[in-house]
Amino acid sequence: MSAGSDGVVVVALDAMGGDRAPAEPVRGALLAAGPALRVLLVGDEPALLGELDGRQGGASAVEVVHAPAVIGADEEGARAVKAKPDASLVVAHRLAAEGRAQAVVSAGHTGAMLAAGALVLRRVPGVLRPAIAVVLPSRGGPVVLIDGGANPDVRPEHLPQFALMGTLLARDVLGVAAPRVGLLSIGEEAGKGSELVQVAHAALLGSPGFVGNVEGRDIPRGAVDVVVTDGFTGNVALKLYEGAAAAIFAEVREALAASVRGRLAGALARPALRGLRRRIDPEEYGGAYLLGVRGLSVIAHGNSSGRGIANAVRLAARGVREGLVGQLEAGLAGRGAPVG
Amino acid sequence: MSAGSDGVVVVALDAMGGDRAPAEPVRGALLAAGPALRVLLVGDEPALLGELDGRQGGASAVEVVHAPAVIGADEEGARAVKAKPDASLVVAHRLAAEGRAQAVVSAGHTGAMLAAGALVLRRVPGVLRPAIAVVLPSRGGPVVLIDGGANPDVRPEHLPQFALMGTLLARDVLGVAAPRVGLLSIGEEAGKGSELVQVAHAALLGSPGFVGNVEGRDIPRGAVDVVVTDGFTGNVALKLYEGAAAAIFAEVREALAASVRGRLAGALARPALRGLRRRIDPEEYGGAYLLGVRGLSVIAHGNSSGRGIANAVRLAARGVREGLVGQLEAGLAGRGAPVG
User: Fold this and answer.
1) pLDDT per residue as tens digits for the range B317-328
2) Of B194, B219, B272, the CB nearest to A258
């Protein structure tokens, strides 16, 4: 799963996945592709050629791979993956499993992504549960939240593996030398939290970088580099965080628009606020890694724009270049570079 | 628990509770007290008289009740409540249980508040688990989140009672005519979420105002009036939401301070942003109701300022005037004004 011998990374992009497919995935592919990053656009060939027609950009680094079927948003993930081997999302995974691509990206059905990861890419040996790792902005720099929603119900013994996977991501992709890991809870003392969290806390003692419990407020504060939690709490947290940022920016805009003085302030503040808005934009990283499967898989936002898709493709390529999957295999086997 | 026959509400305030006691509780009492709202300041009498000495405000509506002991932040809540009958937090509860006050407020130890609620005020007959109800700001107006942290582990059958308690609060205190109730989950369909949430969803069908699952982003969006969840997820969510608001405001401030143009914009924007900051300030409501006990109990933020304490005291008085505890008793007995 590392980059090819020529240094070129090939990413298979499900061009039919997401609310704005195929237009935005095609735009994203053209934005991201270049001499060192080829994109296989997987989906209905006539539709994709129509979208590509006349567009500028890295067209020579983009190739269409035909896949006639699509998995709809209302289908059950695992059933759809099994029933539709010629769906764009499944074909994209097969390209990665067969080595024609080193990574797969989709803004489509999250359940189908999890199923295709397990069924087509398969789990890394030793991994109990693949998990979704999301990179969130914070006052202290990027924070990895894991699990972002793959496992709504977990057992305590799953969390040390989540911690390991998140630590490798923080170290190898985000460049944090010695990632600090916190267990998401509702009080800092070891005895605080749900029964699950209390047992998980004990299981995490001795994990590299583990600093103990953290609370909800520690995510935006950036008190640690990796926040470990079950997929239910993690998904609630990440959607709340994104929603809070969007709501507060909308309120700031409206507060400024309500007076002449405010409108003048808003015009003056625009460059500063635009940079900030972009920095805390969920599209900044474009997607989340599905970790624990034998291939680099990135789940992009369902309503991704071309920019979001391009960032997701770049995130996938970065994971490939840093050898994230290989590091994980080595880490779970107790080999490779020690963590922490 | 309704207001006295003279229309005056009496609130027992634990003046030794919180990080900034007794100075800020005393300040808060003086801010809130008036002809229709008397405050019993409970704590070390010499210290409180010293704080009161020379201060202006509603001093005639404030009375000191001596309680020599204090429950420390590091004590175990239930044990401390049993071992220290003369602690300020316990004495304040006893004043409410004995009818000398109609409500109790503390910025102290949350675990001790829960224990004193159960042991001194006692549960409303039929209530399975008292729960913390927090009022959060949103784009769509105030949102009640319940449980905010009293029950880190719940059973599905607890959630319909949380929904009922939250609905009464939204209706009687916030004035929402027909509150919409959502179950916090990680997908809108009934089949999404943890096993607990899936069973709870079925248990909530038919509850007044129940509209189905909501996601984390629906809290800041204000998609419903009442969000029902377990105390673990709820506490993570509320601390994350507060933390996100604080972090984003700090980022806005810093982004504006980084350039001359930004500083000018910031100066012009100050009035508009100050109003907004206050509207989304956790101190705006000052505290959270502990619902399901036979008395009106408000848990204020541990680091409350005088303004936060005053708002918590007013919140308590509002609950007394609206007869919140009586409505709850009637609602659980199937009597009283129908909900929804």
Assistant:
1) 999 999 999 999
2) B272
